[in-house]
Amino acid sequence: MSSLLTLQRKIKTVISPYHELLCSLHVLHQPQHHPKRLHWARELTAQMPHSLCEEIQTIGRISDGWLSLMTPVRPGSSLTCSEGIALLKSLPDAEFMHLLLNSKVSLGTILEWQQGRLANPHGEQPDEAGLYLLKNLKDVRHLLLAVLETYEREYFRKEWDYIAPWISTTATQFQADVIRSAEKALNSLHPRLLAGSGTFTAQKAVTYYFPYDRLQQVYVLPSTFIHPHLLMDWSEDTLTLPLAVDIPGLPYSEAPPEDLLRQLKALGDGSRLRILKLLWQAPHCTKQLAPLLGISEAAVSKQLKQLVEAGLAGSERKGNYLFYFCNKEAFDSLINLQRQFFEQ
Predict the structure, then answer these.
(1) Less CB within 10 Å around the terminal CB: N or C of the chain?
(2) Where is the HTH arsR-type domain (predicted)?
(3) Which residues of the chain have pLDDT under 70?
(4) What's the pLDDT score for residue 332?
């Protein structure tokens, strides 16, 4: 059997209202990144109680913009909203925390933390988000479930009734395209996805390679919200990919995202670039940076403030001094932000 025919049989399009619910909450958390949904987000937040808007932002900050919750709990399952929320309710505390931390920390490590094994200097230590969840996991779960239930009942249910036909039509068309040419269909999913020569390639901050013969299943999840993100997930033999569903006539914003503008502005200065280079190598305080740069501590503080506001630097107090460090993950995000804007 040819590899292309085998690939065709591995591809399954999955319509999941629960996944689309989470995608919509991600848009509400960061609307400026979604030009086709920016007008929708602004209109809806104007209708919502301020308290619910704030709670959506709070959960977004804890859960990587709601993205960590999109990790398929049941890969390939078409979950209704009530089924997805019920699954979250049933997760043991360690698995719930593992999900919120975007699976970046192993379950074994989280169990050790929950048992109070934080003093071992050789073990993995929780970061600020991990420490917060350890102390407030019960309250976070209660808030998350309350937000999901309220938002789904009061706002998303009506939106799903409107978008469901568009999603169904697009999913059916995509699956038909797969039958005609699996590689051509996959190549239509996103500008930074490429299927060819027996390998599936995805360009994010780094490039990922997935040989066809190592994949048992490729799930494709249609969404009217997730464009222009390349939202994907994978395990050893399973790949989950996005399918952007276009709804004709939606207002479209050409404006660049505010956080992209802040970061580019922060990088557009020689002194700030020199500071970032020093912070990239090691944390520094203003007293250390001033003589290295040949400027006053007040001038250093002014430049650091702009870098921190742009998310390119952070700080941590050690004794009497505030040490600044370079947020290296922000530079990976900056690459994606630029690509997403140019691809829109």
Answers:
(1) N
(2) 252-344
(3) 1-3, 71-75, 117-123, 344
(4) 80
For strands 233-234 and 238-244, give the pairing: antiparallel
User: Burial, 190: exposed, middle or buried (Cβ in 10 Å; 0-12, 13-18, 19+)?
Assistant: buried
How many Cβ atoms sit within 10 Å of the Cβ of residue 100?
A: 22
285 and 155, same structural domain? no
Q: Which domain holds residue 204?
A: 3-244
Cα gap 203→341, rounded to integer Å: 15
Give me the residue label for tokens 């994907």. Answer: 232
pLDDT, position 1 = 45
Give the angle subtended at the CA of 335 by the CAs of 272 and 246, to the nearest 5°: 140
Q: Domain containing 287 — which CATH number? A: 1.10.10.10
**How far separated are the first and last CA of the chain, in Å rounded?**
38
The number of folded domains in the chain is: 2
Q: Which of 214, 244, 274 is the last residue of a domain?
A: 244
Helix ranges (DSSP H) in the chain: 3-10, 17-29, 38-47, 50-62, 81-90, 93-100, 107-114, 128-151, 157-180, 182-187, 258-267, 270-281, 286-293, 297-309, 328-343
**pLDDT at residue 285, as a whole number:** 93
If asked whether residues 83 and 224 sit together in one domain, one would say yes
What tokens appear for 2 in the block? 């040819």
DSSP strand pairing (238-244 vs 217-223): parallel
Alpha-carbon span 137 to 82, nearest angstrom:
22
- For residue 120, the model assigns a pLDDT of 55
Residue 66's pLDDT is 94
| Residue 253 is assigned to a structural domain of this protein | no
